[in-house]
Design goal:
Layout: H1 2-10, H2 12-46, E1 57-60, H3 69-74, E2 78-80, H4 82-119, H5 131-144
Antiparallel strand pairs: 1-2
Helix pairs in contact: 2-4
């Protein structure tokens, strides 16, 4: 059973998947920073300086006016955090677009490599004697005997 497990782990697909998950987690941090530090301020600028990530509605509970979303949650209020949801959607769309661009680029590289392989002339196998040459050799050998 341990040998099977080693064989399973050693397969390329499992290792590729593990690398993909690790890189994906690191990439998510970059995208969150981009959205939070670059895109949110631009959206806030168009919305009149409103901090979009802290946009929420209080459904129940007491929250001081102008409190952040985090403060409202710590106060135990039930909140409808539409700003956080919209930011999550924006994060997803950005990640999906970048992954699409990466897959598209990888597919183009693969197609180019396959095209080069197809265009490369196959090495010709060393030509052996033709049927006529073999028959002539047989004839000559029979004449000598």
């Amino acid at each position: 059973m341990i040998k099977e497990f080693k064989d399973f782990i050693a397969k390329g697909n499992v290792m590729d998947m593990a690398v993909g998950i690790i890189i994906g987690a690191a990439f998510t941090a970059i995208v969150k920073s981009m959205v939070g530090d670059l895109i949110n301020p631009i959206i806030g600028l168009f919305m009149g300086g409103v901090d979009f990530t802290n946009s929420y509605l209080v459904l129940s509970g007491e929250v001081a006016a102008g409190s952040s979303l985090e403060a409202a949650r710590e106060a135990g209020a039930a909140v409808f955090a539409h700003g956080a949801f919209i930011m999550a959607v924006i994060n997803f769309l950005i990640i999906a677009f970048v992954v699409f661009m990466l897959v598209r680029y990888v597919n183009k590289v693969k197609e180019a490599a396959e095209k080069k392989e197809a265009e490369a002339p196959a090495e010709e196998a060393p030509a052996g004697p033709t049927e006529l040459e073999v028959l002539l050799e047989i004839r000559d050998a029979l004449n000598k005997s």
